[in-house]
Amino acid sequence: MQRSIPLQMKQPSRLIHLLFLLLILLTALYLYLSSPESALPLAAQMEEAIGINASREVYEEAISYAGKNLANELDIDLENYDISLEDYRTIVGTATRKFGNCQQYRLIPLETRPYSCFTCTSRPTVILSAGQTFKIGQTCGNKQSRYGSELPEPGLKYFIEFEGNIFEVMVAEYVKLMLFQQSIERKEIIRINQLSGLEMPLPPGNKILR
Fold first, then answer.
1. What are the phi and psi torsion angles at 109 (to 5°)?
2. Which residues contact 106 (CB under 8 A, 6 or more apart)?
3. Spatial separation of the C-alpha atoms in residues 111 and 132, rounded to whole Å
4. What pLDDT score was predicted for residue 87?
5. Cα–Cα distance between 169 and 171 in angstroms, integer?
6. Region label for 194, one of left (φ > 0), alpha (ψ between -120 and 50) or beta (otherwise)
7. What pLDDT is stored for residue 127 in this prediction?
8. How far apart are CA 54 and CA 180, in angstroms?
């Protein structure tokens, strides 16, 4: 007499377990990536939006600079100037309503001649070659609203380099001013005009870093 072997319930295959686990992981990843906390750090967001290659430290300094200036301008109370994404959204929302679209621009000489230098201590003017930087600035308006019918000096051209909200524009201005300090262009202007290395930390037409 043959002994019957009881049928056992089949266990789910290992493949089904793996697929189920993968589904859970993909769901968790989707929820993580779609949450506000997963957004890129603000410095990385600014670099991506503005498109200027600079160190993370320079972007963080620029963000602090923009946050401090705009918080004071808009009467927004920040606990500190280590701007979070939430602070950024608050500032940008308020600033956009007040200032609208803004521009970061550069004034460039079209001819080689002396131009005013506001951060030089040994002389009032420097010789700039055509195409070098006279000023890096920003405005919430345009060339006409910023300067009227005439630019600060003859022979200059107004070039728009970036457009965006005021926070992005201020960050772009700051980053470019910091890059100018270490640039070959600045070293060449210093050499041609026989300035000391401590002079002209900003482009000749910039008076201060606001």
1. -65, 140
2. 133, 135, 136, 137, 159, 161, 176
3. 10
4. 77
5. 5
6. left
7. 97
8. 11
Distances (CA, A) of 33 to 36, 38, 40, 52, 149: 8, 6, 10, 25, 49
Q: What confidence score (pLDDT) does residue 22 get?
A: 59
- What does the pLDDT average to over 17-36? 54
**Mean pLDDT in residue range 70-77:** 80
Tell me the Cα Rg of the chain: 28
Interatomic CA distance for residues 135 and 207, integer angstroms: 9
What 8-state DSSP symbol labels residue 39? S
The values of phi and psi at residue 75, to 5°, are 60, 45
Q: Say which amino acid occupies 68.
A: K
